[in-house]
Specification:
It is a single chain. By secondary structure, this protein is of the alpha+beta class. The protein folds into 2 domains: about 5-85, no CATH class; about 105-210, 2-Layer Sandwich (Beta-Lactamase), CATH 3.30.450. It contains 6 helices and 8 strands. It has helices at about 60-85, 105-110, 130-140, 140-145, 150, 200-210; strands spanning about 10-15, 20-30, 35-40, 45-55, 115-125, 170-175, 175-180, 185-190. The strands form 2 sheets. The chain has a 4-stranded antiparallel sheet, covered by helices on one side. A 4-stranded antiparallel sheet has the order 5-8-7-6, sandwiched between helices. α2 packs antiparallel against α6 (about 200-210).
Amino acid sequence: MTPDNYIPIGRTSLARNGSVSLQVQTEYAARPYPRVTTTVLNSGQVVQKIEKRLNHPVESLEEQSRAETIIRRQHGEVVTIIQKESAVENLTLVGDYDLESENSSVYDRLTSIPGFQYVFRLSADGTFSSENTSRQFRKAFTPVFKHLREIVEIFAFLPGGQNVRQKGVYEVERDRLYFVSAGSECYFVTVQPTGDAINYEVALQKALLGAD
């Protein structure tokens, strides 16, 4: 089968910020190069377009599933930023995507935990995925942000100079905020308990390792 047989499903949402309603569309395209593009429109007029390249076209059902996870992730980040920020024109997401990355499925498992609220992505060196993400986290967790480096360093880099950390979960605030190291990428995960007796540190550890 050719790459044209594997078309990831796109997403469309209406995001509100005050009195303004913006349409958000995220979709995959293979030509002229493989990419995931999110377009923000106001009354049909393009306000902003965020494009992230894939390392190669989608060529299998497994890669199609990973691409759809990437689409959900990027779409959700843009919608969240619109709802919390006023300067939509300054909206940016950094980095490109690797379809072989195990972190695509890790992210998906983390967000499926009961009571999951939001995830803030960081690189292994502790840099947030965008300036908007950094600003949002700083506003929500100012004391934690001041000690960001200490928290990230809880999981040391593995030997070999590959910029990969030890994997693990650290409870920052019980039943509210957790730090997750997935090796080449890290996350701050916020939760809102559903009323069920859930040990979130254990649940996140299982999600990280892919355990049932």
